[in-house]
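Internal ticket #5521
Category: modeling
Description: The requester needs a full-assembly model to guide mutagenesis choices. All entity lines are attached below as received. Residue total reported by intake: 608.
Assigned to: D.W.
Attached entities:
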Amino acid sequence: MRRKGVSYAKYGYIFSIPFVLAYIVFQLYPLLFTTIIGFTDFKGIGRTDFKFLEDIFANFKSVIKNPSFQKSLGNTVGMWIVNFIPQILLALLLTAWFTNNRRKIKGQGFFKVVFYMPNIITQATIAILFSTLFAYPTGPVNSLLQSLGFIDAPIYLLLNKTLARGIVSFIQFWMWYGYTMIIFISGVLGINPELFEAAEIDGATSRQAFFKITLPNLRTIMLFTLVTSLIGGLNMFDVPKLFQAGGPDSATLTAATFIYNQAFSGSYLYNRASAASLIMFVIISICSATLFLIMYDRDAAKLRKQERKLIKSLKKAEKETRRMGK
Amino acid sequence: MRHETTIPQKIYKVIIYVSCILLAILSIIPFYIMIVNATRGTYEIQSNAISLIPSKFLSSNYKVFEGKSFNPFVGFYNSFIISTGATVLSVYFSSLTAYALVAYNWKLRQAFFTFIMAVMMVPGQLLSVGFYQFMYRIGWTNSYLPLILPAIAAPMTVFFMRQYLIGTLSLDIVNSGRIDGAGEFHIFNRIILPIMKPAIATQAIFAFVASWNNYFMPSILLTNKSKYTMPIMISQLKGDIYKTEYGAVYLGLTLTVLPLFLVYFALSKYIIAGVALGGVKE
């Protein structure tokens, strides 16, 4: 027992060093650098020198006033909502179907694999595939509409702004509902089965069991899905960029595409792009912090309730033993 | 009896199956059209862009790529190197960090874990300007390093590895290693890593796919055509040279999807299980 009494605590620090170093170099430093650039006159190709602006918030003011940025923010949120609401509803419906004990659905494994499949395919491929499917004058969608007799001649579908936005939302929905469904199903499997058994004994219908037991118990997982999906949605880039390059007429321009165009697509307005990134950073932080606080509060409230109950029952038990002792 | 099947229940069951089959078709059909059109000539596609039967223009479609910027094999090779490097670093160092969080009692342990939770959600895209400028200054644009090395700090992977370790690690094993005189680093490499194999396999798949599909960062950093990754190669198909070469575009897309299909259908069991694991986040 040579090593008895040795403290191993230092290894906790030592083994964390690679993570911390990589984090500082590749994430924290770039974040600080981006922040600094947001307050400077830094633009143009091949330059590395910059100085702080006299009006220190000038970049932020100009980005917020920029109609293109406002539009991109509106598009981002709009396209995310149009994808998220049907996505979560369909995922819940499929969860209800697949987890119903009385109505065993066969082939669930197959359905899960197929529904999830679009999620692992490169988004760049999916974006270009969809723009090719809707191509004008010769694309599969045009051919289909013609052979069904809906249209006589091919039409340039992607010139329609609403349709273009709708397709971007649809792609997100189509890529993510399978993922959300699998997460929800695993959430349901984590619910205490006694709850469902008790409900069945009490004569509850499947529908009642779903609304009174499944949904309330999925609340945390649903919130988690909401946060991650919102953050992903606010960063939507690959699909809108490669589907129609933000077009037609900026209809599918997202905030991330706006930032990319400012900095890396010929304009080299690094300072503006940094300011826009920081604005997005603040929006995303507020969103996720709010949702996490709600989640945390709920959990904390639940814990306090359980604690109180426990103390109460302990006191009761004490009293009873005392009474019996007399 | 509640368990008997009444007629409305049967109808309901039929509705469920029909809906699921329609959704399955919705997932598959875009890829099916893509693969079939990859074998059809541009003329055939122009007369009718939907066909369920393959044709015989595969090789002539492939010839269109000659001398153009789209080269799926270069893209495959580059993406493979980057994704492999990033995956190895990500799972190894995430395991190490998770082990530090679980097996040792140090003062900043809880604070460090809270920090990891907090930065888990920060999207890398938002630091792109600072990241690019930093890499430009140290001459790392057109290098694979800025796409591989950041994988050492992967908060999400650390989180999952920690969850797994809490459930499986027994300190008795660690202690018996210590009694045998093994060093802490040796214990991690020889005893802990093998225990973590299932978690490493799952996280490796996700890390690999995420790196493989990454488009934003490589498209900013890589300007040299010989360094292009697969997603950048795909974006080349959008160019004007392919405007009329529909068959070639479909073939290019197919070539980029095939490796993912192979991996997905071979490992789908583990992938679905891994996704489900991500849902139980408490």
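Resolution: model delivered.
Comment from assignee: The radius of gyration of chain A is 27 Å.
Ticket closed.
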